[in-house]
Amino acid sequence: MAHRLEEAIRAWTRGLADAERLAAALERGLALSGPPPGDPAEANTFWVQLACHHLPLHPDFDRLAVRAALSGLYREALAASPAPDDAAALSPVFALDAATYRSAFVHYIRQGIELGELDPRLASFDLARLARLVVPARDELIPYAGLATLMDRYLVRHPESRRLLETPQYLWMRVAMGLALAEAPDARDLWAARFYQLMSTLRYVPSTPTLFNAGTTHPQLSSCYLSDVLDSMDHILESATDFGHLAKYAGGIGASITKLRSAGSPVRGINGQSSGIVPFAHMYDALIKAVSQGGRRRGTLALYLEPWHLEIEAFLDLKRNAGDPYLRTPSLDTALWVPDEFLRRVEADEAWYLFDPRYVPELPELFGQAFGEAYEARIRQARAGQLPARAFREVCARGLFREILATLQETSHPWIVFKDAGNARSMLPGVIHSSNLCTEIFLPTSPQEIAVCNLGSVNLARHLRADPAGPGRLRAADVDWPALQATVELAVRALDDVIDVNFYPVDKARRSNLRHRPVGLGIMGFAEAFARLGMAYGDPASADLVDRVVEFVSFHAIRTSARLARERGSFAAFSESRWAQGRLPLDTLAELQSHRRRPVEVDRSARLPWDTLRPLVRGGMRNGTVMAIAPTATISLVAGTTPSLDPYYANVFARQTLSGKFMEVNRVLVDELEALRLWEDVRERIVAERGDLSAVEEIPEPVRRRYPTAYRIPPEAYVELAARAQKWVDMGISRNLFLQSRDLDAMAEVYLAAWRKGLKSTYYLFMAPRMYAEPSTVQVNKARRRPRWSFLEPASTNGHGAPGEHCALDGGGPGCESCQ
After folding, report:
1. Phi first, then psi: what are they for 369, rounded to 5°?
2. Measured distance CA(320)–CA(325) in Å, rounded
3. Which residues are marked as active site?
4. What region holds the Ribonucleotide reductase large subunit domain (predicted)?
5. Averaged over 661-680, what is the pLDDT?
């Protein structure tokens, strides 16, 4: 038995760097735990757990967990039989040749169609040809956390037995085929092959709804929906119906309730008084909690309110943990749609007036100077006694802002989103009344239209050139620009295809999506790219790289959409848009400045020939929007990179998702420490310091400086990097903030800086925990060190520790997965 176990371990570690050391560690683990169970499924679980237990020793153990998990997946999905003896249980490696893997793909497609899970049109593809393109080895590109997430909720299952039918490569090909259905029939195989190569190499990953549903019988592929709830019982209830249908098919919703009159406001039809926004928010909360999206995710909805609404204080209380449960909405998210006028009065320490929307119906439809003038006119009416006394109230702007920030510290809500920047910099006709669930989508809404956006993200870390002169290291500024351009061009086409193959749960969403054809191409993997290029997050070099990369992606996304317009036609509202005037996203900074009558404090440098694009976009654009940088909390797990613009939370930490708790180790740091021959000596110290290198003096200072934890990065750096990106992005950026200090004045300066620099939004606020649990994974000298964090129980004082450790949803907050 011992000899056969040794052979199994050798097979498992074959091809990995330092395989002998990994094998020795596993043998020591087996000596303590005993041999694996005889049942193959239980044996696979055993090997996965054993590998994960050793992950603090080296990131390569993640590869071993992946191999063990894939072994079980192949047995299940490919209906393969284990060996007649106990060899299958002893070895986590289920031998499967590429030919068997590929041939089973054709059976999978046909079986999926017969079971009613896959679109019958997939049978029209040349399945044998596409099967030959499948590369089984790419399954190992996905890290264990991503693979476990795919297996738990993404891969297609048998509708009755719930047996997995799909492997990761089958998923990529199924999605590619589903998108290619929008292409000409004689070109579908070609485009499916191209989309598959793009996604299976993890250079580009579509959003979660697209991964869930492309190629299925219910292809709801869009990520985000925006709605404006009107002040009538009919529309409030109609919106509830719409929200239920949208959430059922994996859509994340952002809805403005600013127009709803406040509590006590007259209701003439019944000669009574309004109950205000809270009961309706509570109703939406119950609705969205009931929608489980097929058991794979919870329903997700964010309510937006402008801070002049008379019930702003009650809105702030919706997410508090204590108090009357009927005045709380635990399943919803909340956000403020903040006009410039409010922040101007905060800076000046002036009075702020709250109004009942019934008496100021024009305010939700105005922004910029027009809003400021109308708002001031209403204040004059209030002071002159021309409005009922119950219709307004005067408060201190700065005091209200501090109350908002204090609530943010306690609950991570409400998110702060900037109304005027969102509207003044919009390329589309119409008024934007809110952002989406994750604060990166800015699209106009109307009673006839629910705005829709379609998302996917480029993986920047997969577009870096390796430097042969050093193990795992890269030359500065060594981005593979031609490869990145090719990815952007293909990704924009894939996103445009989403619009045409999409299933629309409500007609108002279809109408809006076909009128504007918005897509939101994002980028993830910035922090990993910084690390691989030898940059510290937030230093000038990293800010310049963000500027260059986002400019490059924006340029080629816009150009691709303009060229698609020549092939497929422009979006319906093109003639009313700024694109038709030859305007570009960078131009709108001047318009925002004009509204504010003050500078937007952001670097304006450009490197690409933007003037050559003006005549091109003037001639037509396929898409009303082209870019939005979403949180990518879930798809970054699948891609094995860092999410969006976010930093590494820590160099070692645990992430909680709906699919379980997973340990993450900064592989780039480990590679560098191994090159310095330090990893073996310092890994326990890094664990003891909960992934913070600042106190690990054995590590050279330049290395420690380049790998800070999220809370050690100055908040100004988060704002600066987002501002450098936002100037090129026609929609928005989901910008998480990580703050060490709980000082409200310092916190106010961070949010005011975000506003001054032209950001359209901020997202979750994460506060550094005040207390930490004793680590159970390393020995700690209690006399020398204060209590530290445990891998298995990350500490958090407000339910929001590391992204992904809160609200039982995937990283970055509830609903991030709806975006990406």
Report:
1. -60, -40
2. 10
3. 436, 438, 440
4. 610-631
5. 90
